[in-house]
Amino acid sequence: MCAHCQTPEQSRQLESSSLVQATQPEWMKNAVLYEVNIRQYTPEGTFSAFQKHLPRLKELGVDILWLMPIHPIGKEKRKGTLGSVYAVQDYYAIHTDMGTKEEFRALIQAIHEAGMYVLMDWAASATAWDHVLTKSHPDWYLHDDEGNFITPEHNSQSDVIALDYNVAALREYMKNAMTYWVTEYDLDGYVLHVNDKVLPSFWEDVRKTLESVRPVILLADAPGHSVPTGFDIVSGWELEKAMQAVSRGEVSAAVIRVFIQSQLDSTSNRGIRMLYTSNHEKNAEEGSVFERFGKAAEAYAVLTYTMQGIPMIYSGQEVGLNHSLSLTEKDEISWGDHPFNALYSRLNKLKKDNPALWNGAWGGRMELLTTSNPDQIIAIYRVKDGNRVLAVFNCSPEEVRFTVDAQEYQGDFKSFKSRSTATLTGKEAMTLPAWGYEVYTAR
Q1: Which of 65, 77, 102, 269 is the most buried (most CB within 10 A)?
Q2: Do 391 and 359 sit in the same domain of this protein?
């Protein structure tokens, strides 16, 4: 066994360690996340150019901006012309193509002045092959039996090498680096890339240290089943996977129902689930929402807002981004008007105005309703302080006539789609077109 390889006992530590309680500040209660790909957002690909979009994003109803990594990118074994932003060369530096530290500071200040918050993507588990630490502290990395750096087992990318979190000095270095950006630039927290491959006890230490500076959010961007307790937000990647399978006709809507039920059955402090139809990885590697979901793209977007979780929008989705944005070459978003802009604007307003749709414990608990067509129809009901939401989705490529058993949920509701009033009697007979949906609200 090599000196810096992970032992079975260390693997068990990854699964069993318990984290401190997540803080979840109140401003999260009805917040909407938005992932920002700085490089591809504008032709310039800079902080200053992106800053001009803040008024538009504020008007859209976005609250928390997730900035993809902003650090210099490694040159050794680089992917493509520009390299992946996740192949970090220096945790304390800013990529000069994106701007200066002064321009980054100005962007953070402008975000806060607009009443929004900002999280920075942090790739802690691995670095570029030519990261500054490979020269100063090569012993902080995992090595094979011949003493060579190794790429992470969980990561097929050959442009990064794995760090060894059994080394106390590395943990201290990384904690200090993360504290630096919160202290110097007033970040509101981090999105933790592949966080499940770092010792959970490290994240516990990071939270304690960062919150001695200011309250922060920690978002675990790794598969939910492998994430320990104590994070504010946890990726709901399973939902996107289930929606894809349903769209392709591989499985029925029952798979989505299984995901919803798993959230209802969960009693652990595993954070609010981040629900999305796209992110940088899904878009780049598997295509746009229209390629992955086809005609179901709109209904699935609405589903992420009506379920119990915090919704996330990826750069350009609001203008109908219809192609993959490269992670290693220069690419661009075509900004213009699109029906999804009005859709997301209305969804964001609906979420903020109706407490039943708020995030986590602030919102109403989900209830799965019984329908006559469980393999095609998903029906969700949520209620909070007299605010009620009934959402129904046809997860099939054909029109469906069905009934929903909602005996306790009678009265006058407002249709999200038609904006007209609908009177529900408790045993509703409905018809939805292929991949159709409806959301009824009452206050």
Answers
A1: 65
A2: no
